[in-house]
Amino acid sequence: MARIDDILAAGTAVSKLDLRRYLASREVATPVDYNAIEGGVVDCAPAFAAAFAENDAVFVPPGVWRIAAPIVLGYGQSLFGVGDASVIQAREDPWDANALPAYPSSFDAIELQDGYCQVRDLKIVGGNSAVKLYGSTGPCVKNVIENLTIWDAVIGITLDGYDDTQKPCYWNSISKILIARPRLHGVLMTVLSTGDTPNANKFHDVRVYSLSAPMTGCGFFLSTARFNNSFIDCEANLHPSAEACFRLGAMTDQTRILNFYAECSGAVPGIRIDNSSTNTTIIGLFSATGGAPIWDTTGHREYMAFAAGYPTTALLKETTVTDLTVEGLNYATRFVEGQSTVNPDFSVAPLWLVSSWAGAAQVVLPLPSDCPGRIGIIKKSDSSGNSVTITLPAGSGPDNGAVTLRAYGDFLGIISNGAAWHIVSRHYDTPIGGWANPSGSAFTRGPFNTDELENVGFSYDRNVVNNINYRLHDTRAVLRALILDLKTKGIFGD
Hints:
Low-confidence stretches: 432-438, 440-448, 452-460
Distance between the termini: 117 Å
Shape: elongated
CATH topology of the largest domain: Pectate Lyase C-like
Largest sheet: 16 strands, mixed
Oligomer: single chain
Number of helices: 5
Strand content: 25-35%
Mean pLDDT: 89
Radius of gyration: 36 Å
CATH architecture of the largest domain: 3 Solenoid
């Protein structure tokens, strides 16, 4: 096509055909070209439909353009305006910033049913969803939603996997959005029927504000969404009637939330994680709500967090650190009492305090192959005469033998190399089976019998006596070993 400077070159005749082609290539269709009337009274939906039937791009001039049916965009089509001055009104009543809406719309204001579309620089008032993305005529991918102000919709933006796995809702970019006064959700990700989950969609600078209008849902609700949907610099400032600022439903996986801002004067959680939601990453959460910053509804901790939550601000999994300085270290601890069989899970706590006060207890270690590199500590936490025995499921124990903790304070420290449990620290009686004993039994520690002391009238402190036992234990073991060695060399007789 000829350039304008060539068409209007000085000293040459102007070709009307070239000029017409040039001007036509730079014209953009508007709803006015198809008999739309600005003012918020006349239904302009037929004009938008006619415009998109003949054009891939439609410009919305400043003004209020009422619609009574959705504006539908097909593959590669664009709808754009000049910003808040270009208003799509999906209801009869005009927008009023000072009046709570009635939410009368039963239809979506704008629908993207295919891919590579753009919707930007508009103000949308009303709608069941102000903007809905779903694959109906083709895969709903690579769409751009940018610089929108959405008021008084039931749901601000919906991403729907819909009913065909071959027409998924992937790779869409939603940015610079304000969703004000939604009735149900600000953003919803879901699957209406049998389609694929919305995956790998990017949200940036999306804000949901209730502005004193009651709502029954969430700022962001991911009912069904998987595989790297990301939310960066987003915000939800909600009415106390809401469920959560951000909610991860049961069918969510691999969600990324970075620098999220949550605010509510009521007991609304900042981020709610439902049962079966997995592999969420939360970085840099600021939560100014009356509820929990992160509400893990089941306590399964199927997420990772850094600089997020309270009072714990980090939850890391499968982390490798090459150089670490720790100024204060707390161990997660579990206390177990009244159980005859204990199955410690060292992935949730390395230290297990086991009370056998109600009866002897057996601690069955997990398979070492399930715990490579794990460290565990098991300690008897009561002073009863009942023992705590530590074994493997097959019946043996660490270092190929069962371990028995008999006295208060006895403990065992172990580590798994993936093939076996190895003892790295311990405090308990160990039978010395390798040393001969004329009595026919192995040497073991013989503690003071405090009951006998009591029978003969001694006044004593049981804990003091137990401490004496512990201190004498190593001394007796050394003396016994020395005596046996001397006997072996014939220095001492029997």
